[in-house]
Design brief:
18 strands; Diaminopimelate Epimerase, Chain A, domain 1; single chain; globular; 268 residues; 2 domains; diaminopimelate epimerase activity; Diaminopimelate epimerase; EC 5.1.1.7; DAP_epimerase_DapF; mainly beta; 18-stranded mixed beta sheet; amino-acid biosynthesis; binds ligand LBFN2T5F
Amino acid sequence: MRFAKGHGTENDFVILPDPDAELELSATFVAAVCDRRAGIGADGVLHVVRTKLSAEVADQADEAEWFMDYRNADGSLAEMCGNGIRVFARYLVDTGLAGAGEFGVATRAGVRRVRLEESGDVSVDMGLPRVLGTSRTSVSGREYEGLHVDMGNPHLACVIGDPVAQLDLGRQPVFDPEVFPSGVNVELLNPVGPRRIVMRVFERGSGETRSCGTGTVASTVAAAHLAGESTGTWTVEVPGGTVTVTLDERTSHLTGPAVLVASGELDL
Ligand SMILES: N[C@@H](CCC[C@H](N)C(=O)O)C(=O)O
């Protein structure tokens, strides 16, 4: 089986091209591929399938030729992945499956429009973040309140106002299962300047990762909320690099690097 490997600010993915939807991806198989010692190693899998051949999203086929069937490192499904979709777009263009410029990609959260910028960055229209209230988490014995933000997938974005570098994110943060029955991605962020934040994340289904695109937008919404703002462009520093997030009245955009680093044959 052919594969490629790529990352967006070190949120890394194994890409499995399957245009004719022939692969049955079990959770065990995905977890084995993502295993950093016994597999290729990744935060998730980007399964590349023709939208019209995937019953889950066939209704999006008019707007998007390709479906990003996203799987977390533990094999669970997710609705959306902001860094993954940017790497997915880079893969489609570099392999000739899509033309350069702007196009739609089908996801479980609906069609997202992606654009390859002349700078080499990849941008995605992430849709309008939905703020659904507040909730609490406990990280290494410390309690934090955060904003519940729906980016197609669930987030709890907590402004902690302290440096995030020393936090211990080695274990699953505690969260309220009544608010998040399907689990949640937890972001901890610290505003460090005008429209500039530093963020770490513990992702549902993958653990701590070095970046999370949907999480950077959720975090921007939380920081903007605290600053009494709802629009503008923010810089988000994550352990794996830097991205920019723009909020406006109707939608949000995420922009940053997305690169392919390897390709090869996966020994089944
Ligand atoms: N890394 C992603 C988010 C991947 C899905 C997430 N772990 C979930 O289960 O919702 C991103 O860049 O957005």
